[in-house]
Amino acid sequence: MPELPEVETVRRTLAPALGATIATVWHSGKPLRLNRAVPVAAIRRAAGGRAITGVRRLGKYLLVDVDGPRSLLVHLGMSGRFRLCAPGTARAPHTHVVLRLADGRELRFSDPRRFGQFDVVTRGDERAHPSLAVLGPDPLEEGLDAATLHAQARRRKVTLKSFLLDQAVIAGVGNIYASEALWLARLRPSRRTGRLTEAEARLLTRSVRQVLEHALEHGGTSLKDFVDADGREGENAEYLRVYGREGEPCSRCRTAIRRTLIQGRATYFCPTCQLP
DNA sequence: ATCACGACCTGGAGGC
DNA sequence: TGCCTCCAGGTCGTGA
Questions:
Q1: For chain B, which bases have at least one atom within 7 A of a protein Cβ?
Q2: pLDDT digits (tens, 9 = 90+) for A18-59
Q3: Distance (Å, whole) CA A252 – CA A203
Q4: CA torsion through residues A216, A222, A223, A227, sign
Q5: CA A35 – C1' C15 distance (Å)?
Q6: Structural domains in chain A?
Q7: What's the distance, CA A28 to chain centroid?
Q8: Active-site entry in A11, A57, A60, A114
Q9: Pairing of strands A21-27, A70-75
Q10: A269 CB-side CA count, 13 A
Q11: From the CA of A77, how many Å to the C1' of C9?
Protein backbone atom coordinates (compact mmCIF):
# COMPACT_ATOMS: atom_id res chain seq x y z
CA MET A 1 0.00 0.00 0.00
CA PRO A 2 2.02 2.88 1.22
CA GLU A 3 4.91 4.54 -0.50
CA LEU A 4 6.73 7.65 0.62
CA PRO A 5 3.86 10.15 0.17
CA GLU A 6 1.43 7.92 2.05
CA VAL A 7 3.85 7.26 4.90
CA GLU A 8 4.69 10.95 5.12
CA THR A 9 0.97 11.77 5.20
CA VAL A 10 0.53 9.36 8.12
CA ARG A 11 3.52 10.94 9.84
CA ARG A 12 2.06 14.42 9.53
CA THR A 13 -1.39 13.42 10.68
CA LEU A 14 0.11 11.83 13.80
CA ALA A 15 1.09 15.29 15.06
CA PRO A 16 -1.80 15.43 17.58
CA ALA A 17 -0.26 12.45 19.37
CA LEU A 18 2.90 14.40 20.22
CA GLY A 19 3.28 14.96 23.94
CA ALA A 20 0.85 12.19 24.86
CA THR A 21 2.02 9.43 27.16
CA ILE A 22 1.83 5.78 26.12
CA ALA A 23 0.10 4.07 29.04
CA THR A 24 -0.15 0.47 27.89
CA VAL A 25 0.81 -1.69 24.92
CA TRP A 26 -1.45 -4.43 23.55
CA HIS A 27 -0.57 -7.03 20.93
CA SER A 28 -2.75 -9.52 19.05
CA GLY A 29 -0.21 -12.30 19.40
CA LYS A 30 0.08 -12.70 15.63
CA PRO A 31 3.46 -12.43 13.90
CA LEU A 32 4.09 -9.89 11.15
CA ARG A 33 6.53 -9.81 8.23
CA LEU A 34 8.48 -13.03 7.67
CA ASN A 35 6.51 -14.71 10.43
CA ARG A 36 8.53 -12.66 12.86
CA ALA A 37 7.10 -12.14 16.34
CA VAL A 38 6.33 -8.58 17.41
CA PRO A 39 8.76 -7.84 20.28
CA VAL A 40 6.04 -6.78 22.73
CA ALA A 41 8.23 -6.93 25.81
CA ALA A 42 10.83 -4.67 24.23
CA ILE A 43 8.11 -2.30 23.02
CA ARG A 44 6.67 -2.10 26.54
CA ARG A 45 10.12 -1.44 28.01
CA ALA A 46 10.91 1.21 25.41
CA ALA A 47 7.57 3.02 25.36
CA GLY A 48 5.46 2.12 28.39
CA GLY A 49 4.79 5.16 30.58
CA ARG A 50 6.74 7.41 28.22
CA ALA A 51 5.70 10.47 26.25
CA ILE A 52 5.77 10.62 22.45
CA THR A 53 8.30 13.28 21.53
CA GLY A 54 8.29 13.07 17.74
CA VAL A 55 7.45 11.07 14.65
CA ARG A 56 10.02 10.79 11.89
CA ARG A 57 10.18 8.96 8.57
CA LEU A 58 12.99 7.14 6.79
CA GLY A 59 11.90 5.99 3.35
CA LYS A 60 8.73 3.99 3.97
CA TYR A 61 9.53 3.51 7.67
CA LEU A 62 8.06 5.54 10.52
CA LEU A 63 9.98 6.20 13.72
CA VAL A 64 7.97 7.08 16.81
CA ASP A 65 10.30 8.80 19.26
CA VAL A 66 9.51 8.48 22.94
CA ASP A 67 11.19 9.68 26.14
CA GLY A 68 14.30 7.66 26.75
CA PRO A 69 16.84 6.14 24.39
CA ARG A 70 14.57 4.19 22.02
CA SER A 71 12.16 4.74 19.17
CA LEU A 72 9.45 2.50 17.74
CA LEU A 73 9.94 1.39 14.14
CA VAL A 74 6.79 0.93 12.06
CA HIS A 75 6.43 -0.28 8.49
CA LEU A 76 2.98 -0.55 6.94
CA GLY A 77 3.79 -3.26 4.41
CA MET A 78 1.05 -3.50 1.77
CA SER A 79 -2.10 -3.26 3.85
CA GLY A 80 -1.00 -1.63 7.09
CA ARG A 81 -2.73 1.29 8.78
CA PHE A 82 -1.49 3.36 11.67
CA ARG A 83 -4.33 5.37 13.14
CA LEU A 84 -4.91 7.69 16.03
CA CYS A 85 -8.33 6.75 17.41
CA ALA A 86 -10.65 8.57 19.79
CA PRO A 87 -11.60 6.78 23.01
CA GLY A 88 -14.34 4.21 22.55
CA THR A 89 -13.87 3.77 18.77
CA ALA A 90 -14.52 0.19 17.65
CA ARG A 91 -11.33 -1.71 17.00
CA ALA A 92 -10.88 -2.72 13.35
CA PRO A 93 -10.31 -6.35 12.40
CA HIS A 94 -6.64 -7.34 12.06
CA THR A 95 -5.49 -4.85 14.65
CA HIS A 96 -2.14 -6.16 15.84
CA VAL A 97 -0.60 -3.49 18.05
CA VAL A 98 -2.37 -0.88 20.17
CA LEU A 99 -0.55 1.89 22.02
CA ARG A 100 -3.10 3.11 24.54
CA LEU A 101 -2.45 6.71 25.50
CA ALA A 102 -2.95 8.06 28.99
CA ASP A 103 -5.75 10.35 27.76
CA GLY A 104 -7.73 7.38 26.43
CA ARG A 105 -6.89 7.76 22.74
CA GLU A 106 -5.25 4.81 21.00
CA LEU A 107 -2.57 4.53 18.34
CA ARG A 108 -3.56 1.39 16.45
CA PHE A 109 -1.56 -0.60 13.96
CA SER A 110 -3.73 -2.86 11.81
CA ASP A 111 -2.51 -4.97 8.92
CA PRO A 112 -4.65 -7.72 7.33
CA ARG A 113 -1.84 -9.22 5.27
CA ARG A 114 0.74 -8.90 8.04
CA PHE A 115 3.51 -7.78 5.69
CA GLY A 116 4.23 -4.88 8.03
CA GLN A 117 6.80 -4.52 10.75
CA PHE A 118 6.82 -3.20 14.33
CA ASP A 119 10.11 -3.04 16.18
CA VAL A 120 12.32 -1.06 18.55
CA VAL A 121 15.45 0.86 17.55
CA THR A 122 18.02 2.89 19.44
CA ARG A 123 17.75 6.57 18.70
CA GLY A 124 20.88 7.97 17.12
CA ASP A 125 21.84 4.49 16.00
CA GLU A 126 18.83 3.75 13.80
CA ARG A 127 21.02 2.50 10.98
CA ALA A 128 22.12 -0.40 13.15
CA HIS A 129 18.70 -1.91 12.46
CA PRO A 130 18.97 -4.17 9.40
CA SER A 131 15.83 -2.73 7.81
CA LEU A 132 17.22 0.81 7.96
CA ALA A 133 20.86 0.02 7.30
CA VAL A 134 20.38 -0.48 3.58
CA LEU A 135 18.18 2.53 2.84
CA GLY A 136 19.44 4.98 0.25
CA PRO A 137 18.79 8.73 0.19
CA ASP A 138 15.35 10.17 0.75
CA PRO A 139 14.16 11.94 -2.41
CA LEU A 140 12.51 14.75 -0.46
CA GLU A 141 15.74 15.57 1.35
CA GLU A 142 18.87 16.93 -0.28
CA GLY A 143 20.52 13.51 -0.18
CA LEU A 144 19.43 12.45 -3.64
CA ASP A 145 21.50 13.84 -6.46
CA ALA A 146 21.49 13.04 -10.16
CA ALA A 147 25.23 12.43 -10.46
CA THR A 148 25.16 9.69 -7.82
CA LEU A 149 22.07 8.18 -9.37
CA HIS A 150 23.74 8.19 -12.77
CA ALA A 151 26.90 6.56 -11.42
CA GLN A 152 24.86 3.85 -9.72
CA ALA A 153 22.81 3.27 -12.84
CA ARG A 154 25.92 2.79 -14.96
CA ARG A 155 27.13 0.04 -12.66
CA ARG A 156 23.90 -1.95 -12.88
CA LYS A 157 22.05 -3.94 -15.50
CA VAL A 158 18.51 -3.94 -14.18
CA THR A 159 15.51 -2.25 -15.73
CA LEU A 160 14.83 1.35 -14.74
CA LYS A 161 11.65 0.17 -13.04
CA SER A 162 13.54 -2.28 -10.80
CA PHE A 163 16.19 0.33 -10.17
CA LEU A 164 13.66 2.81 -8.81
CA LEU A 165 12.07 0.15 -6.62
CA ASP A 166 15.43 -0.64 -5.01
CA GLN A 167 15.27 1.02 -1.59
CA ALA A 168 19.07 1.17 -1.48
CA VAL A 169 19.00 3.46 -4.51
CA ILE A 170 16.14 5.73 -3.42
CA ALA A 171 14.26 5.18 -0.18
CA GLY A 172 10.52 5.54 -0.56
CA VAL A 173 9.62 4.89 -4.20
CA GLY A 174 7.17 2.03 -4.70
CA ASN A 175 5.23 0.45 -7.51
CA ILE A 176 2.84 3.31 -8.27
CA TYR A 177 5.35 6.15 -8.28
CA ALA A 178 8.00 4.17 -10.17
CA SER A 179 5.63 3.99 -13.15
CA GLU A 180 4.55 7.60 -12.67
CA ALA A 181 8.09 8.98 -12.47
CA LEU A 182 9.20 7.06 -15.57
CA TRP A 183 6.23 8.39 -17.50
CA LEU A 184 7.08 11.94 -16.46
CA ALA A 185 10.71 11.42 -17.50
CA ARG A 186 9.60 9.86 -20.81
CA LEU A 187 11.66 6.75 -20.11
CA ARG A 188 10.46 3.21 -20.82
CA PRO A 189 10.34 1.13 -17.61
CA SER A 190 12.03 -1.79 -19.40
CA ARG A 191 15.10 0.32 -20.31
CA ARG A 192 18.34 -1.01 -18.81
CA THR A 193 20.06 1.28 -16.34
CA GLY A 194 23.42 0.95 -18.07
CA ARG A 195 22.13 3.02 -21.01
CA LEU A 196 20.95 5.94 -18.89
CA THR A 197 22.60 9.19 -19.97
CA GLU A 198 23.56 11.93 -17.56
CA ALA A 199 20.81 14.17 -18.86
CA GLU A 200 18.27 11.40 -18.44
CA ALA A 201 19.47 10.79 -14.89
CA ARG A 202 18.88 14.46 -14.10
CA LEU A 203 15.43 14.31 -15.62
CA LEU A 204 14.60 11.11 -13.76
CA THR A 205 15.76 12.54 -10.44
CA ARG A 206 13.59 15.59 -10.96
CA SER A 207 10.64 13.46 -12.04
CA VAL A 208 10.84 11.25 -8.95
CA ARG A 209 10.81 14.30 -6.69
CA GLN A 210 8.01 15.96 -8.60
CA VAL A 211 5.77 12.89 -8.58
CA LEU A 212 6.28 12.28 -4.86
CA GLU A 213 5.79 15.92 -3.89
CA HIS A 214 2.65 16.18 -5.97
CA ALA A 215 1.22 13.03 -4.37
CA LEU A 216 2.08 14.35 -0.93
CA GLU A 217 0.28 17.62 -1.63
CA HIS A 218 -2.82 15.56 -2.33
CA GLY A 219 -2.54 13.43 0.79
CA GLY A 220 -1.25 10.32 -0.99
CA THR A 221 -2.90 7.77 -3.25
CA SER A 222 -5.77 5.65 -1.93
CA LEU A 223 -6.53 2.76 -4.26
CA LYS A 224 -7.75 0.30 -1.67
CA ASP A 225 -6.36 0.41 1.80
CA PHE A 226 -4.54 3.64 2.42
CA VAL A 227 -5.86 6.12 4.97
CA ASP A 228 -3.98 8.66 7.08
CA ALA A 229 -3.80 8.64 10.88
CA ASP A 230 -7.27 10.21 11.00
CA GLY A 231 -8.76 7.59 8.69
CA ARG A 232 -9.02 9.93 5.68
CA GLU A 233 -8.23 8.76 2.15
CA GLY A 234 -5.76 10.57 -0.11
CA GLU A 235 -6.86 12.37 -3.27
CA ASN A 236 -3.89 11.60 -5.49
CA ALA A 237 -5.41 8.63 -7.33
CA GLU A 238 -7.25 10.99 -9.69
CA TYR A 239 -3.97 12.56 -10.74
CA LEU A 240 -2.18 9.34 -11.69
CA ARG A 241 -1.09 9.48 -15.32
CA VAL A 242 -0.43 5.81 -16.05
CA TYR A 243 -0.78 3.60 -12.98
CA GLY A 244 -3.96 1.54 -13.25
CA ARG A 245 -4.87 3.25 -16.53
CA GLU A 246 -4.33 0.46 -19.06
CA GLY A 247 -6.15 1.26 -22.32
CA GLU A 248 -6.79 4.88 -21.43
CA PRO A 249 -5.24 7.58 -23.65
CA CYS A 250 -1.87 8.97 -22.60
CA SER A 251 -2.43 12.53 -21.41
CA ARG A 252 0.54 13.71 -23.52
CA CYS A 253 0.04 11.91 -26.83
CA ARG A 254 -3.30 10.04 -26.65
CA THR A 255 -1.73 6.62 -27.29
CA ALA A 256 -3.35 3.86 -25.22
CA ILE A 257 -1.49 3.19 -21.97
CA ARG A 258 -0.06 -0.32 -21.77
CA ARG A 259 0.34 -2.64 -18.81
CA THR A 260 3.20 -5.10 -18.57
CA LEU A 261 4.95 -7.13 -15.88
CA ILE A 262 8.44 -6.30 -14.70
CA GLN A 263 9.77 -8.62 -12.03
CA GLY A 264 6.25 -9.78 -11.47
CA ARG A 265 4.90 -6.30 -10.72
CA ALA A 266 2.32 -4.44 -12.75
CA THR A 267 4.01 -1.69 -14.72
CA TYR A 268 2.25 0.98 -16.80
CA PHE A 269 3.71 3.08 -19.58
CA CYS A 270 2.98 4.93 -22.81
CA PRO A 271 4.52 3.01 -25.74
CA THR A 272 4.81 6.20 -27.81
CA CYS A 273 6.29 8.90 -25.63
CA GLN A 274 8.39 6.79 -23.26
CA LEU A 275 11.58 5.98 -25.13
CA PRO A 276 12.90 2.40 -24.99
C1' DA B 1 28.07 -10.04 -6.51
C1' DT B 2 23.87 -9.28 -9.14
C1' DC B 3 19.51 -10.49 -10.85
C1' DA B 4 14.66 -12.48 -11.38
C1' DC B 5 11.45 -15.11 -9.25
C1' DG B 6 8.39 -16.90 -5.84
C1' DA B 7 6.83 -16.75 -1.17
C1' DC B 8 4.77 -14.52 2.60
C1' DC B 9 -0.89 -13.35 3.93
C1' DT B 10 -5.70 -11.80 3.55
C1' DG B 11 -9.55 -9.88 1.12
C1' DG B 12 -11.94 -8.07 -2.83
C1' DA B 13 -13.39 -8.43 -7.61
C1' DG B 14 -14.85 -10.91 -11.38
C1' DG B 15 -16.04 -15.24 -13.95
C1' DC B 16 -18.88 -19.31 -14.11
C1' DT C 1 -25.62 -18.03 -3.63
C1' DG C 2 -21.06 -20.37 -3.82
C1' DC C 3 -16.68 -21.54 -5.51
C1' DC C 4 -12.75 -20.60 -8.20
C1' DT C 5 -8.96 -17.72 -9.93
C1' DC C 6 -6.49 -13.62 -10.10
C1' DC C 7 -4.81 -9.44 -8.25
C1' DA C 8 -3.05 -5.97 -4.73
C1' DG C 9 0.62 0.02 -2.96
C1' DG C 10 6.44 -4.41 -0.05
C1' DT C 11 10.22 -7.03 1.19
C1' DC C 12 13.11 -10.98 1.57
C1' DG C 13 15.20 -15.67 0.72
C1' DT C 14 16.44 -18.61 -2.91
C1' DG C 15 18.96 -20.34 -6.69
C1' DA C 16 20.83 -19.37 -11.18
A1: 2-12
A2: 999 999 999 999 999 999 999 999 999 999 999 999 999 999
A3: 17
A4: positive
A5: 22
A6: 4-133 (3.20.190.10), 146-269 (1.10.8.50)
A7: 24
A8: A60
A9: unpaired
A10: 26
A11: 9
